[in-house]
Amino acid sequence: MFIQEEYLEQARKIHRECPVVDAHFDLAAEVCERRLAGEQGVVEQRYLPRFEEAGLNIVVSSIFINNRDLPELGLRKALGQITALKEDVESVNNRIRVTGSRAELEENLAAGRISILLSLEGLDPLGNDLSLLRTFYDLGVRGAGLTWSRRNAFATGCCTAGQFQEIPGGLTELGKEAIRKMEGLGMWLDVSHLSNDGFRDVCEAAEQPFIASHSDAWAVHENYRNLTDAQIREIAGRGGVIGLNACGYLTGIMPETTTPAEQEADAALLRLCEHAEHLARIAGPAHIGYGFDLCKGLEETTPRIQFETENYDVLAHHGEMVKLTAALLQRGMDEEAAKGIAGGNFLRYYRSILR
Ligand SMILES: [Zn+2]
């Protein structure tokens, strides 16, 4: 997609001056794997320059557990990931920090420091023991989805990984109790990966606004990870935010290779714009953000989990966020809407949740 310089300039200014957020990134799992292999300064070397290039203010790191590690290793892996990520950024604490409170978040914003917020991609590490939710809260976890694309003690995921086939079944009683507990603690609820039945149950059980941190629009591409128009309206109507996912499987454009020809890359970016525009049309632009779910790094470290990650990143790295914002502007999105989507909307939401 040919992006004119004036829109790139406008987008760069937005990313420089306004809040920028990626609401879903599998960072902790990758950092943990790489550190176990002996690498240090993973975030500093591999990600920080791109984060800063994008003007990123907040990145939400998921804590993601592979199928093969469940159930026995779920808790251990989750704890390992949190510790690894905290240790990894310690030496660059003046530039990026794991953050758990509203005051810290504001401090980081004022100082131009990036905040990492932690979110559990599924409550599997808790097993059947909901009391451990508090343990994770005390470790700094501020958001959670009830389940990843699988069934656990709390809920049923949207589909079988790699098959994208709807699984019937909603929330268990424990799942409903988990929502009450999360709302009481000051954690956000994330419905990406939840089944349609589960979504319906969440609408009954949740009293506070919830998010879908990394999901696209079913109307643009039919995939069980994506949201129907009714679901989009429901999230927005309650004050939640939807994060645009840049994974090829979800957008519906899957180039043959991971380094696609320019034409293929353009088609993928255009499709991503179509998802953003549809979500914004249905939800209103104040309820859309970015939650790119860039998977390449995690896949490199654990090649066997192909299909457990969502695979093929439309954006090669975070530096390319600017290109997407520019593309949206060039296609007619107004500047206020683009600012909100780049990060203002998720920032507003996190401010309402964090204590
Ligand atoms: Zn995911």
From TrEMBL:
SUPFAM superfamilies: Metallo-dependent hydrolases (SSF51556)
Alphabetized Pfam families for the sequence: Peptidase_M19 (PF01244)
Species name: Laedolimicola ammoniilytica
PANTHER family hit by this protein: DIPEPTIDASE, MICROSOMAL DIPEPTIDASE
Protein name stated in the entry: Dipeptidase
InterPro entries recorded: Metal_Hydrolase, Pept_M19
Top-level taxon: Bacteria
